[in-house]
Amino acid sequence: MTLTNDDDGEKPITTLKILIIGESGVGKSSLMLRFVDDTFDPEQAATIGVDFRVTSMLVDGNRVKLAIWDTAGQERFRTLTPSYYRGAQGVICVYDVTSRSSFEKLEHWFSEVDTYTTKGDAVKMVVANKIDMAGREVSREEGIKFAKRHRTLFIEASAKTKEGVQCAFEELIEKILQTPGLWENDRPAFRLGQNTARQDDGYCGC
User: Fold this and answer.
1) Residue 8, domain member (yes or no)
2) Which family is this protein grouped under (predicted)?
């Protein structure tokens, strides 16, 4: 897959809505900005309400447009929740490996996903962020166990060092495109390459 912000005139085969959720301070905005703009700001301000970026990727020679929604983790913005989830084909739930409380809140976030997603087969991924930092409180094994229990993709990442970020988004997008009914395809001949990880594997295969 190739990420590009350039408009070469090629019409996208589809537009995908990707939602990033999780507690405040786990690095949701940093993950999005690292993926879209390849930038990292250690002083990144907390998101107010919702922010989003639009970009595109080439998947096996076909352009896919991505609308990535970065949501606020603070409780005072929860009244906006239903509109966030509407139409999302992919949901990335982020926790901070140095914050056990952010990991323990994953159950709440997945309950919210089940309540508000309008596409029952939306692809879900758990991203364990900030693996570059000292003071880890949540092991990789715990993250994998949680992901397997909820039948989601899983990857550890660092928005600061870039590790795992590109892989996470690519794996999610590939899984969405391989899920019948999640997107409109007017090119029947479109085929993806071999899948590198199944959603129930509990980890990212990159």
Assistant:
1) yes
2) Belongs to the small GTPase superfamily. Rab family.
